[in-house]
Give the backbone structure.
Amino acid sequence: MADQSPSTPEADRIIKLAVLAVGGQGGGVLADWITAVAEVNGYRAQSTSVAGVAQRTGATIYYVELCRDTGRQPVFALSPAQGDVDILIASELMEAGRAIIRGFVTPNRTTLIASSHRIAAISEKIEPGDGRAPSDQVMAAAKGSAKRFISFDMEQMALDAGSMISASLLGALAGCGALPFPRETYEEIIRGSGRGAIASLKAFAAAHDRARDVEAAPEAFPPQPIPSTPKVKGPQQLLSQWQSLNARVDAYPELVRDMALRGLRKVTDYQDVAYGTEYLDRLDQAVKLDRAGYALSLSAAKHLANAMCYDDMIRVSDLKTRSKRDARVRSEVGVRDGTVLQLTEYFHPRIEEFCGTLPAGFGRYIESRPKVSAWLDRRINRGRRIRTDSMSGFAMLWFIGGLRRWRRSLLRHQVETAHLQHWYKLALDHVSQDYALAVEILNCRRLIKGYSDTHVRAFSKFDRVLSGLDLVKGRPDAADWIRRLREAALKDEKGTMLDGALKTIASLD
Amino acid sequence: MAERSFAKEVEKLRLGAGEEFSGEGILAITKALLQCGVGYVGGYQGAPISHLMDVLADAQDILGELGVHYEASASEATATAMLAASVHYPIRGAATFKSTVGTNVASDALANLASGGVTGGALIIVGEDYGEGSSIMQERSHAFAMKSQVWLLDPRPNLPSIVKSVEDSFELSEASNTPVMLLVRIRCCHVHGQFIAKDNKRPGMTVAEALDSPRRDTKRIVLPPASFLHEKEKIEKRWPAAVDFIRSHKINEFFGPDIAKVGIVLQGGMYNGVIRALQRIGLADLYGETQVPLYVLNAVYPLVEDEFLGFCQGKDAVLVVEEGQPNYIEQAMASMLHKADHTTRIIGKEVMPMAGEYTGQVMFDGVGAFLRERAPHLLPAQIRAPNTTDMSQDLSDLTALVPGRPPGFCTGCPERPIFAATKLIEQELGHHHIASDIGCHLFSIMPPFELGATTMGYGLGPASASAFNSPDAKRRSISFVGDGGFWHNGLTSSIGNAVFNRNDGVIVIVDNFYSAATGGQDILSSRANNRSKSTKHPITEAVKGMGVKWVRHIERTYDVNKMRDTLREALTTPTTGPKVIVASSECMLNRQRREKPLIDKAIKGGERMVKPKFGVDEDICTGDHACIRLSGCPSLSVRTLDDPLRDDPVAHIDQSCVGCGNCGEVADAAVLCPSFYRADVVHNPGTWDRFADNIRRKLIGMMQNWRERRRLEFVDA
């Protein structure tokens, strides 16, 4: 494809630069900066945009054309064309993908500068499971499509500097040398932009140096931090009990140990050391049945822990009244010295939660009497805002969290334990005939999550997925079908995809 | 108060003769109006000319100094009707609105304005919203010019051309006693450039002077028999006058060599795109020096027949570059050639697409195809026979992967809880027929809400549900209209109509205090003090005045429970007639713009200020994302935890949260989960604040300590 008139000398060519941004990222500011930098360097520049979309979180394009000022006005185009872009700046990774799809990135021509961070689109966020598009395919496509590909997390760099991503994008543009302008001229323009200039300069400098140093080498995925063994504090007696549980984990096959230890830690934290013993007792059954690879034990270690740590009022109250939580909120919100933090929690308990927190017999007694239940529900079922920075609010939750000691005798615990045992037994019973199927049954526990109605719906999905078990049992691909059912169940809220998948199964011969 | 302030930029409107103006297209248009001695300006906002209205609003002082009247019209029809001031008086007037939604609304006034004709120059600046980023682009402004017999200019998209076109328009209008439409496309409105300014001119006659010495001329009034005469006059007098003016003033431009076998005819607005295609093909240089002759129609209606036929002289074929459909210009030119018995071939939509934007690639392909077929000798080898080896990789995987990112409700938008409540009431009472309207609230049709079945036009939401009014139905229709649409024409077209026809449906008026979708301009019910306009007229009073008996006003839309309960009441009450819910909360974009600097200043000044932000307890969130399905706030996203025990990402609220409270309210109303919290940071706390906080934190610390000493505590190293 011809770039421009072949007779045009190199230095007099038009440089075409497009910015693909998500609304609210400051793409307009960036385009203005680039125009200004070009003009102070003796270039003529023209920028265009489609206003409106930019404010409202949609994907939007800013377009700048520039060329050396020879005293005559060049004819600039108003929007980018496929195969005719020299520099493409994507302010988010999927926007780089969009630019490639739209043909704005060409291997013989385009310098692609893309921030590697993700802003999930609404379609990615609403799935009950993990609906996010994987980044690696876009990364690979970007490497293959661009002449040079400069990519790192410019959003984080901007945040660290207390600035906006527009500043770090400009830094990357300056640092990669795709425009023939000296660094000082960029900095001069930022300095002149007034508010926030110091933070912007900091973000600019960081991105500039990074882009200059990486030179076309896209960001290597940062090595996963090796999970540090958590430190344990507590009374001596509990610590020695904990040590003995740890010793039991150490006796497990090496592959299972990390997950088992995490599970053990979770359930112990949830209830007590005895609960940890219960966990390991259950896990032992899976480990004993397991063969090499230990998929069964790993799944059991993960999902047993999650099943045993069901979400009840006690757990929520306990978590919300811990000192760790207070510290986390303070750091997330950015509470500084000299300010005061007020915390409001949103609760909406219903009769079900109330009964679940009663001794099993008493709870059942109420639940089996609709009139009493309804009367109580009218008093309980409403939204409550609880101030956990106040004494009364905190004390109430602290008290509920303290019910932990009696949890084993409460109605919810009995219901959950019965359900767990049924599920776990179902899975282990299948090990001998179909190992993979047993693993998939264990993995179905992932479906159970949420509170109140969401939780009820989750249970129903769980039951519907396992209802497919009888239909596929004995087939060589039974495990695969259960996996597919589970994945379908995580696609939408009501389980429409799941119903479709179940119909497919029913039609299998 | 509009979303964008031009307070600084409007100072450029004071530039005098010889000085260089540098800025955006819309600002250049405003400057051109003042240089032309315009007497009054008005219009209705909407992309792409919203900012032109904002510029005018911010330039009121300058306009006032020159004796220019400024009007923020109630609708496009109002704006066009305003141009009636130029019918009898030699006053230049300009109105602006977007096309085609605006030209549609303006049609009635446009027909009558064109019929009687004008004495002073009457200019309508239409923002042609076609192509990328456009919301309403179904029709061409060209059709409106043709059917009403007004002239249409489509200048080359650079500042000197646009400015000259404004001047030409007024003169053309006066020379032919006909209103003129000036068409500017979206990117042209926002293009940055320079031109050499002239002095501003005071109008020859101001509206005040006209008012003091009224005139009338029955011959200019649209009523038979005068209107029959206008029909003839338009064709016999005004049209030839316009054609003469366009020819003699060289409104259309010629570029390139005089003699060639092929040429290109194009709308002025297409010029830069055609030149870019020629540059890429190798037939034009940087500055637009082209080897292919161009006939640039800065006036696209009426066409100048002899000028066009002259251009065709000696050419085998001519390409017509005309964006949009139907191809009016191409048809007209084909007819001219045919009648003149000309052998030149007209090529148009064979190589250019009939529908859709003429993007860079479309131009490159279309112009290339035309030249390859008709003038291959002009082309360099690689264009004449391009290598077809496709270097692009297979992108189908990527296309499936990259998620769509349509515009949606802003962070903290007060309309989101209205639709969360609607979704909740539908979970309870079943699905309803929902009619939508134009405005920000139309984002309800997108995920996560997916509510709304039709959108028929601005202010026409409830009107578009008017057929759904049956005593046999067990369910009522729900319709939405924004405050902008309500005042535009919804009050009569939708509310009055519903009252009169005893419509039993539910109407929700989304009141965000501004015409928010067009950029936050003030309207009658805006609650801000406006220096030159009368605001604070409650919608509820207007609705009651129209005769609606069942009216509920929600003053804080974030109260999802109340919103849902009110909807339930409206859908189930035995009361007959329209049930109107006015749901009011200020547009968050505007509110932030207004409040943020004040709060920051107050904090710096040592005042006690409470700043809210929401958060999610990540260990309590289970990763079901039900909250996101009822909210969709950009600041509410998902995050992967560094914990192999957790498969699904959890909800997370980022730094952009404005603390509107929607998350917590939705979690409460939908009984979701207790993981949301609101963190209010008290800046510059008072002595009591600090004292109480101190005591509380000590006591709470003691309780935490007591418990944590008695259990195993896992601390991340």
Remarks:
- Chain B touches chain A through 133 residues (CB under 8 Å).
